[in-house]
Amino acid sequence: MLCSRLATALPALIFATAAGPFLAKAPTPRSRIEEVVRRYYAEVANEPDQAKAAGVLDQLLSKDFFFAFGNRDQPTRGMEAHKRFLVEHHRVAAGQTWTIENLVIENDSAVARFRLKAISGGAFHGVPATGKPVTTRGIDFFRLSGGRIIELYRVFDVCDYLRQLGAACPPEPPTVTPRL
């Protein structure tokens, strides 16, 4: 009897072990990753109506979304925290226009090199609003699962942004001429 149970269980175990990688959650298709990232910029980052942007976030982000911004000590977690961040971000940098300059997708991740144009509309790192236009470039790293964004890491040159507002910042690094 034990032998018949083993004879039945062993093929099932072998099949489950061999099929395991194939039964695992399928990766997000490349076209879906591109669609989600482009929608994030077009319908969230560029959207001045934060209620409308929040509705789109409900479709694009996972409930346990993780966001790390620049050198902040604490990332934000959760969709609602990101919605609050975006309201503040749009207050500080009004009239935002985000442009994807380059998009690279691999596996369940995407890296977008972006350009952001905005108007200084609120205090930023202790610098009062100036009403001046500001342009900066940066990189966003997205990770998706199940067709939704689960992580977003954003990096841009804060010193360049502050200099455009007329604020002091550590001096720019010296220009080095490459030797050929």
Structure description:
With about 180 residues, this protein is an alpha+beta fold. It has five helices and six strands. The protein has helices at about 1-25, 30-45, 50-60, 80-90, 160-165; strands at about 60-70, 75, 95-105, 110-120, 135-145, 150-155. The protein has a six-stranded mixed beta sheet with strand order 2-1-6-5-4-3. A hairpin with a 2-residue loop joins strand 5 (about 135-145) and strand 6 (about 150-155). Helix 2 packs antiparallel against helix 3 and helix 3 runs antiparallel to helix 4.
What can be said about this structure in brief?
The chain has five helices and six strands.
Summarize the biggest pleated sheet. Answer: 6 strands, mixed
The count of DSSP E runs of length 2 or more, i.e. the number of strands, is: 6
Q: What coarse outline follows from CA principal-axis ratios?
A: globular
Count of helical regions: 5
Give the strand line-up of the largest sheet. Answer: 2-1-6-5-4-3
Strand proportion: 25-35%
Helix content: 25-40%
H/E series, N to C? HHHEEHEEEEH
User: In whole angstroms, how far apart are the ends?
Assistant: 79 Å
Structural class by helix and strand composition: alpha+beta
**Which whole number gives the mean pLDDT?**
84
> Cα-atom Rg, whole angstroms?
23 Å
Low-confidence stretches: 1-23
Secondary structure elements and their pairing?
Blueprint: H1 2-23, H2 30-45, H3 50-60, E1 61-69, E2 76-77, H4 79-92, E3 93-106, E4 109-120, E5 133-145, E6 148-156, H5 158-164
Parallel strand pairs: 1-6
Antiparallel strand pairs: 1-2, 3-4, 4-5, 5-6
